[in-house]
Amino acid sequence: xxxxxxxxxxxxxxxxxxxxxxxxxxxxxxxxxxxxxxxxxxxxxxxxxxxxxxxxxxxxxxxxxxxxxxxxxxxxxxxxxxxxxxxxxxxxxxxxxxxxxxxxxxxxxxxxxxxxxxxxxxxxxxxxxxxxxxxxxxxxxxxxxxxxxxxxxxxxxxxxxxxxxxxxxxxxxxxxxxxxxxxxxxxxxxxxxxxxxxxxxxxx
Length: 204
Prior knowledge:
globular
């Protein structure tokens, strides 16, 4: 889905003009594998944070492998994306934009280095997971830079796709009480399961 989103969809007269097989595209498949590698990185670094002993050593080793693979996918996708559409190319390679866009790739490189150093030295428990989450956040920030303000790439903007103000107000009424409840029980569940999981935990 992400790869096709970057490439854009075939639209005619405001309607989807493609087929159900449009997702079978080399870049879309490649991007899907990259996202899977990224989630493997998140999972492995989460295990580093939550486990100890031999399992943690194994998780560190797998996290370093996933970090390298994820990095390779990010490099290829980042190099391809500007050439997917002239608007994306113009946004990234405009000299006026370099000053405020350069921190994105530079910070991503620093985070990769920091994550690898933390995994290699074995001192930091939370550092690799925080770095992995930050890498994901920066990748999606880069995607936003490439495609904003379009929600259907290069066809329909955020404002064109927005619902009627009355519909938004109706949803807001339900969201205002529900969102704090969701945030509250999510925070509580993380608090209950805080700390590391050891071999002695469990029911027997």
